[in-house]
């Protein structure tokens, strides 16, 4: 029955035997997820219970609508940082006298992210997942991690830090160093060290779980709250009621822009993570289908007083490592967290804030992928520069503006790659088939009486002038005995009206020198553009050919060697 419902793909083919794997996996997911569920909301100034709510309802929604068997959704440090920036912009737009309901704003943004996901699915915009390249994401998350680390200064020290950015909070901390609450700082640093010890020695008990249990026990024994160490405080013991955020009381333009920024980062990073896990398990990742699952996983928290979520690396990794086989593991995790909320709220109330700061600081450091940055440096210096630009944007302009910088860097990179399409004059090598780039193969020789010029890339408004200049310089440098110039358009995927005008200008120059301008292997779409622009009429339809060899035979009477495009340079 379940398998026949398309919306329950993560539970397709379910049988009871799977519970032997899914129940332990779900318990492990809950154990690892509870500390982050309590800690992450602090990044955006939200109460800890909102993280628990998100960790309960989001996996349930994804189990119903998500396509993957193994992915687990939940609070994510990077998404929370973008959420914090978006909330800051919305709160700043509110009148000073207005009461600010941070939970309602976070819920409205979660609803907006969900709507963006569904709209993108309907428009089949899953390709947006590839819009932020891996280098851009790596750099952006490195910048986000530094922002998170700086944000923990106050929680570690017990000092209220009012400055924003990267350097000002450090300067303010130095100025207020006399106010440091040393027991809080010592506790936070000890727990931070414990997390790294557990990670280094690969303890079977996850570090965050150990920190939460140990710090709660110590807090109960030594009365941390009475000694001035901040604790989480009261956490509601019941589940939230279903309600819609009051959108009419909020600046909708800021809600839309904030939701768009969160959607772009969380979906882009989520699909990167999904594909990474999919490559290990052999599970295909369909970005358009994932939009439905992530849309539902964000709308559900919005209706229960929580915030946006994304694919959780840590929870998905735990699911895989403990043998989870279906979304039943996510449902077990949700049920476990419900039990924790009902029965453990008294223990969670005395959880010390410095311990949560240690968990957040460790999570932030894990966002800095030094190995990947080294790999990018080794592969492409240019992409490494764009990674640094994205990191600098997140640090210098704030996380929300950093998203804009990251998107702008991606656009600049894409334009840079296509503004100067690869081109070159082609010739033959004696005894070998095909055509070869004269600049790359010194032994290649031009075809006598003709010139063959190849362009690899589209000819569009932003590179048409470059293409025209290149073709014009080639045309003017041709020997006097040249009878034709054949443009190999086999790798030209698209030509717009500006590109057509550039080719028309080249045709005029060649006509003045009595050199025939011909095109080979022109696509039907590009031919239609050139016909409507009058370029085909100018050069003559009889000068369009299916290949370079056909063009040379017709224009100069040469019987060429059988060549292949694959051997062309």
Keywords for this entry:
569 residues, Transcription Regulator spoIIAA, six-stranded mixed β-sheet, two-stranded antiparallel ribbon, 23 helices, 8 strands, 59% helix, disordered N terminus, STAS_dom
Which helices and strands, and how do they pair?
Layout: H1 19-39, H2 48-65, E1 73-74, H3 77-93, H4 102-122, H5 134-151, H6 153-157, H7 167-175, H8 182-201, H9 207-222, H10 252-281, H11 287-303, E2 310-311, H12 313-321, H13 328-343, H14 345-349, H15 353-366, H16 370-379, H17 381-396, H18 399-419, E3 422-427, E4 436-437, E5 450-456, H19 464-476, E6 484-488, H20 497-512, E7 516-520, H21 524-532, H22 535-539, E8 544-545, H23 548-556
Parallel strand pairs: 5-6, 6-7, 7-8
Antiparallel strand pairs: 1-2, 3-4, 3-5
